[in-house]
Input
Amino acid sequence: MRAWVLVALLGTGGLSAFASEKPTPSPGAKIANFTLKDIHRRPRALSDYKEKKLVVIAFLDTECPLANLYVPTLIDLHQRYAEKGVQFLGINSSRQDPFVVVSAHAQERNIPFPVLKDFEHKVAAALGAKRTPEVFVLDEQRTLRYRGRIDDQYTLGARRDKPTQTELVDAIEALLAGRPVPVPETEAVGCLLERAEKLPPAAELTFTRHIAPLLQRHCQECHRPGEIGPFSLLSYDDIKNRTRRIREAVIEERMPPWHADPRHGRFRNDRRLPPEDRALLLAWIDSGAAQGDDKDLPPPRKFVEGWKIGTPDQVFTMPQEFRVPASGVLDYQRFTVDPGFREDVWIEAAECRPGNRAVVHHILVYILAPGQLSPYAPDGTASMLAGWAPGDMPTLYTPGWAKRIPAGSRLQFEVHYTPNGTPQTDRSSLGVKFAKNKPQHEVEVNILANMRLRVPPRQARVKGEMVYTFRDDALVLSFMPHMHVRGISAQYIATYPDGRTETLLSVPDYDFNWQSVYRFQEPLRMPKGTKLTWIGYWDNSPDNPRNPDPTQEVFWGLQTWDEMQNGWMELVWLNKKK
Output
């Protein structure tokens, strides 16, 4: 299997849907319509721009120095020609660039035109693109009129203050004036475009030998009866009739769900498929999805039914069943439970379990210390114990780390219900595991909430920002950015007392449907005085398909059509008195 994986990493593994190169189209060729996903996974088709006089397609990638040098040039040209009916499109077809990196790259450079991900290199193959940057100019009939370099300002190892040859501008100006393009084709200069080729695997791949262990490692946690996955992936029968949809989800990096930019931070709950497993799964599907011999199956993975943390030491359930009406809007519902703790207890694992996933949008369980009416303290500390939302994972601490519940405390369930068209009932629960010994580190939760958030109507990229200053030395264990349906990206940036800055977490394609906690592999040390800047962006434009009403100005609020800029942070104060 090692030999096959090596071949896969070198470019086999079903990473491409085409087996042979198509003839490279010359100027004068008609370009067929195509549809790709943009940096927020919205489909963009060439036909969407039928009212445009010209379309300029620029192949880019995130690593190529020449491609990055030319991004400002392309932005300037977009601004110069947009009102004249010229549409620019950036396309990333480089196999080494993950989708989230493409999304972050475009946002970091404030690229104002759509940037699309060509996951299977289909558009690159259709146009015969070979390098980045390389541009293609299509006229009003979507006939190719120019292909090649942008200009001669930048070349490998040399650069000019200004270009002496401006082939792209010359082509645009000529076509807008109704003249033939003076130089219809040039040789592009830049980085070779890395496209995977379709090659046969070096060994026969089977479900029983190769795929079943992979699914156990990466998929069955959620894709099994009673869990959040929409179908089970425990057996060959489960997967054999779903290979096309699984292939698409894996190719487009939608599954397993993970939204953090890999360039910033290392996370112990990172759900991404390793490249070799991704290649293996795609190659198996592309080679026919053979079953294999049942004797090669690994032993079934054992799960504790209903719990990801294992069998809880104690389970607390809402005191009564709540009836959810068929329709309407419900305020957050709160239920208080007395756990009966007569002395301090330490929690090393906690997990919320919705009783009825069909109507439970999310659950938060807070600790109410004796005499405490609200879980929120004036300094921003929130005594939250655990939460649940689609995509979230349970709270799990390593030995020596735990969360304290003071003696005499109560637990408050805060549940957001969303009616689904029929009357339903729910009675959700919380499971906990106790630390065997008093821990060395007490974990707290801070909530960074920008309650002054204001998102104007019809704006595509609205920035919200708040700053938190660490009052003492601390270790940060995790972040959880939370916005609603207009939220599109999130960042946490540290500015240290010595002036250094560091991006701790970047979520360039925030997805409201997956509320993930990002747990660091190793706690991050934050010296006293470090400023943590939590930045979010919202799209309140008609172009956002999740936007309930782009005509409305939106403020911080609890309901989904309101917005939030909340950021939970788990941390330990290093100098706290024991």
In short: The chain has a mean pLDDT of 91. The CA atoms of residues 37 and 123 lie 12 Å apart. Residues 65-81 form the longest helix (17 residues).
